[in-house]
Amino acid sequence: MTSCAICNNGLTPEKEITCDMCRNYIHTTCSGLSRTELQYLKNKDRKLSFHCPTCSDLKLQLVKLHELASTVGALESELRILKESMTSRDVTIDSIKVPDVECIIQEVSDRQRRKNNIILYNVSENVLNNRNDQVAADMELVGELLQMLDVSVDNLRTIRLGKFDSFRTDMKRPIKVCLPDGDIASKAFQRRQKLRTSDKFKNVFLVKDKTPMQLKLYREARQELLTRKAAGETDVYIKYINDVPKVVKAGGPEN
Question: Quick one: pLDDT at residue 223?
């Protein structure tokens, strides 16, 4: 007798369902599906598929692997640009420490860790004696800002960046906001222009949390942009291509 892939107990045809990925049989009661969902899966013309817990986890891992591969591809592109930059400056490879596979892995890990974060600049800072009161005030402020962006968050953490100076009353240290996942951080970033319509937050700037390598590449692109504009070019701007900042001509081929 065929057994359930989840509980390993015996199956009966009228109370079993097949995983569309691995084709293993599962008790309808072990599937976690409602009666309506089970009834729908009996339809031969259905467009949705059912995956058992093992296959669902496998699909999630494959998605994460694909995201990792995309990130590694972007890093390889960045490293190529860095090497080209070194060559253009007559810097020999032997004279510096070239990023290797270990550095790439560290960069990928750092990006994965930072993708859930956003950084807020020019945020007013209450000078409170009690650190817990300070954190609570920042949490309330960030919660209000996210609410304005129509971003709902149940769990977040705030960190003021930089050293606190008790002798200053105009402190505006940046706030790192650690969010539950990258999708929420991306949503907040995409809606950041809404802050300009608020009297309270119109001077606040919201950016993604970047790694040192990403910041370095942006600074180099920014310097190139300024140099080319100083030379008379007016139709150039910075564009992210495969997550790499490059200076391109408006309406023209990528440079």
Answer: 94
Give 41-108 as a DSSP string.
Answer: HT-TT-------HHHHHHHHHHHHHHHHHHHHHHHHHHHHHHHHHHHHTT--GGGS----HHHHHHHH
Strand partners, 237: 248
Report, in angstroms and rounded to the nearest whole number, the Rg of the chain calculated over CA atoms: 26
Residue 75 burial (C-beta neighbours within 10 Å; 0-12, 13-18, 19+): buried
Q: Which two tokens stand for residue 11?
A: 């199956």
Question: Among 49, 26, 25, 27, which Cα is nearest to 37's?
Answer: 49
Classify residue 34 as left (phi > 0), alpha (psi -120 to 50) or beta. beta
Quickly tell me which residue has 């139709």 as its tokens.
235
pLDDT tens digits for range 85-111? 555 545 444 444 445 567 777 888 888
Ordered alpha helix ranges (H), 115-211? 131-148, 182-190
pLDDT digits over 20-41, tens only?
A: 888 888 888 888 888 888 888 8
Q: Which residues contact 202 (CB under 8 A, 6 or more apart)?
A: 195, 196
Is the confidence at residue 235, as pLDDT, over 60?
yes
Buried b (16+ CB within 10 A) or exposed e, 13-22: eeebbebeee
Q: Which residues contact 96 (CB under 8 A, 6 or more apart)?
A: 86
